[in-house]
Amino acid sequence: MTTYICDSVHGNVKIEPYARLIIETPYFARLRHLKQLGGACYTFPTATHSRYEHSIGVYHLTNLFATQLLQKETPTHQRLKTLVCIAALCHDLGHGPFSHSFDTFLQNLMKEETQSKDFKRLCLSHEERSCQQFKRLIEYVMERNPKEYELHLNLNEEEIESICAMILGKKPPLHDLQRREYLCHLVSDSVSGVDTDRLDYLLRDSRAIGRGLLFDPGSLLKSAQVYRIQARDMKKDARCIVCYSRRDEYELSQLFHTRYSLFKVLYCRPDVCAFDAFLEDLFREAIAAGVLDLERALSNPDDFLELDDRILYMIEKQARESQAPSIKGLKDMCKRLETDDTYTIIYNYSFPNRTRLTHPLADSDKGSSEKEKLLWELLEGDPLCTPQNVRVVVYDINYGHNHNNPRAYLATYLDTDIPDVIIPDALLKRLFKDSSDPFDENDEERAQDHPFNDSYHSPEKPMQLDAVVASQDLIENMVSLDSQPTSDRFGPSPFMQHTISPEHFQETVVMVLLRCSRYDPGYQRLKMECTLRISQVMDSYLAGYNVYMDHSRVNINDTSSVLVHRISPRTSNGIASAIPLDHSDEEEDTGIHEPFLKC
């Protein structure tokens, strides 16, 4: 029987019988106890929504998108839509406590040489764990409700593997899905960056922290159409992709900008990252004290059911009740958590990743782990800035395609009688990777420099595309893109102006956290000395590359006191450095103040 769920974002969501069978299992119900935004709720009190409602939202959007793209309600189409919607519903089953924070924790554990090979094999990505949990969920439904399973699900082995492939973002073995590859990318599209998972979390997370949404997902849904792209080399298989109306370019650009903004103000907010780092160290203490048996929980899908956000309360309870000396460090961390005494941010700076390399921290080709290693090398030998005292965090924020313009991987069409699709060169390279026709190596760079964020086009050198495009319903009337007047096809839309900054599409954020408690006797002095030392190290490092720090952009976030900087000239050209002012030697305030101006 079809039922409905009232969702705060999408309104009434239709739940088909097959979806109800999946939802009413302990493997899906576990998602109720996984916060979508992890530890962000300690910074944003209203950010308490769960993976449960997010998964239902992704299922709903996927159902709408698949209906829009398939149009014809044939039995084959209906079955394929069911498989895609199941993948949408189950794509987050493998998330651990506090969502992505747990993934980062496992990645850091895997890097440690002390961990056994058996344990490292258990440290899978959340997508791989989702596949494990999904297969166990299907077994559970078959055992508990065999008749309803036969009636509403009845998945064969190939269909189960195809659902797992869609969760992993891989090619499914089912031939009908291979022929309609655009369906496989509805839940997770690493090429275009527009998928139902992203649409739902942008909508839901923005609402949770009280920020308005700058794009209309309904408009994108209505304009989505499938086009068949055929390479000029007819030996290559044609590719079917989802394209969006040229009139929705503003919505698309705002979608990517919204993603960037949420990473900036929410997902990678400094105090959120500081809490995640503290939580990771708390989990380490729990494992060392024998309170958390992570290896057992990861080795069995049924034991994994216990691994949700409630594990933190279990750790706190055991630490409070235990009298063992080995648990003292864990007890102290739990007390700090209760009083919001987590790590202090003593340094925070972002480096835009330019197209041309200026220094290693701004190199878009280097990963965050490499940059973190570089910072530790700079701090090597310092008696204060040691791993026992400070924690270095480095991460990249971008628009979804690293340092590249995300619009370079998205195809749009013109609303005309003749099918006319505009495909950036970068997207064609992804679709036909081994194309024999040469591409301009600078196309990607020039696309970033283009003020309207389109693939580069100039009257002197018309844009060349190595493909012809056809509508799904008008395949016999293929129209070559370069046969149309370029002025008609590539006229810049006024809505595209200044929607995404062409200067850079990725930035690296460097953050240094002080581990000690705010209530430790030497906290203030250690904080000041470490901050000064890190500032000096960074100034010296950048000066070696003839780059100077803009200290007005440095954010040292300490809400307990107002930060005052003493500016002193450093060079003859007026470059200055900022040093936190030490107030420890100031006289006690008597309450009597001299007037600022004497008349």
From TrEMBL:
Gene Ontology MF terms: dGTPase activity
Region spans: Disordered: 438-460
GO terms for cellular component: nucleus
The UniProt record lists the keyword Hydrolase: yes
Keyword hit for Cell inner membrane: no
Record-linked PANTHER family: DEOXYNUCLEOSIDE TRIPHOSPHATE TRIPHOSPHOHYDROLASE (PTHR11373), DEOXYNUCLEOSIDE TRIPHOSPHATE TRIPHOSPHOHYDROLASE SAMHD1 (PTHR11373:SF4)
Basic and acidic residues compositional bias, start-end: 445-460
Gene3D superfamilies: Hypothetical protein af1432
Annotated source species: Giardia muris
UniProt protein name: dGTP triphosphohydrolase
InterPro entries in UniProt: dGTPase-like, HD/PDEase_dom, HD_domain
GO annotation (BP), single: dGTP catabolic process
Pfam families: HD
